[in-house]
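Bench notes, bay 3.
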Amino acid sequence: MGSIKFNPEQINLTGITEETFSLYQSKAKQKDILLTNNLQDGCLVYADKNMTKTIFRNLVSNALKFTDRGGVIEVSSHRYEKFEEISIRDTGVGINPDDIDKLFELDNHYTTKGTEDEGGTGLGLILVKEFVEKNGGAIRVESQPGQGTNFIFTLPLIQ
């Protein structure tokens, strides 16, 4: 809604990923889910740190919610020209392609229960999209039912 202060700076995504994994380690352990950070050390972008932490927390939390016991959540990235493309991929239940566009619609409030009946508001992904775009990036989703989900977003490299 435009009321959050935007303060871009150089940030290390490797550290943010480790911090996020630390927050959710007990939930991952409870569901026997492996959290894998495949970012190169020193993966630097120019973005708002608080917004970026919120993006990671929401996407990892959702991945945990929709991944069955024994699954894997992996964070990786690739550099493309002026952007770092970050992937948060899970081996979870997946999303029907017809429902993917609904994930980011404010007036839709699309939400489903997690693998262990975890709930949600349907607002987290809307916030994620807003924060990614506020930082000059874009987000997309690749998913098929039963084959997991991959949230892919970009953040600008250091100016």
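Next record in the batch:
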Amino acid sequence: GNPAAGLTYVVTTGDVLDSAHVQGVVIDAFTDSPEPEVLVILHVDTDITGFSAGRPAYFTRTDKSGGFMLRNLREGGYRLHALQDQNANYRNDLPNERVAFQESPITTTDSSMHVMRMFLPSASTQHVKEAAVLPDRVWRILLTRSADSLALASIDRSGGSLSWAQDRNPTKDTILFWPSDTTLLNGQRFTLSDSSGVIDTLVYRPTRKMPFLLDVRYVGRSPDGLPIVRTSRPIAQTRVERAMLVVDSTEMSIELRSYEGRQQFDITNAPSDGSSCTLVLFPGAFEDIYGGKNDTLRILLGAEQVAQSGDLRVELVADSEATPSGPYFLQLVTAQGGALRTMPIPALPFRALLPGIPAGAYTLKLVVDADGDGRWTTGSYAAQRQPERVFRQQGEVNVRAGWEVVVDWSVGDR
């Protein structure tokens, strides 16, 4: 009546028990975290279609640490794959199944630890992964691939005028559609199309009430050092006479410049040396495209104060010739998993200087930017292309207020 964890029961049809083995570990290609309970599959090296259409010669599952051991194998060559099997048929035949693979066949005489990096392959066809109407009435649509041209067309609406303003993320696979008019939109159907035709039919359905007041926040500084504020909805009209800037107790009018669309604005007459100042907004200084206005707001602008921030210097070197060559980009990652700072790195060795980091604990991530697009690119099993390599520095980096923290990182293969 007791579970026999790890029990292996081996049956042979002859007088010899096969004794070869293959071992390794499966990790997430982007986070380096272990992948427990995923299938690890072996096909004989002559079976080039078995992973997608056949049956495995051997299989096992990874343990809690992502490790695996395939025992009692026949001597010979094999193709090694890992699979997050969504339909329990031991083959890769669904677009949402994550995979990992070794590019070349392996042999049972190779006793090395095989590191498998699991990823979700890029989609071969365009479709909608998610569509949601956010409280501010923007329609956020996530696609499986980047898109250069998209259009929404109404199925139910007759008469009136409706247009959609678009905002895209850098990878062009998440699009924000802002309707020019939200009247009677709830429950209406629309077709989403690209240059190849209709992708999907979607229903516009808000789930929460839109906030009455327009929100305005300080989000950082522009490349020329000017403070940037961002509004929660696109702006139709600004009234600078209903706002002022307070610098060293001196009140002055403000000058605005649109920055990356109708939601971000530079304050062009604010100090550009990082010194703090305060933006005061009286009701109606900003009016959005739906007629919403801000309430009275006092927004502190400026860089983090020395008492709250520190500087970080990262000395990057390659630990061996096996370390992939650049270009790279370095990211300082917060405890919540977001990237606080991103810096391009042309080659190693390199000294990265990151000033004005808010005090706290972070991790460092270095991505091999093989295609030079400034973002992590997943792999493709069809093209036998591995995802871009990601290196994580072991342990945390603790930035202390008023200190310069130096990290020596020898970037090496796992």
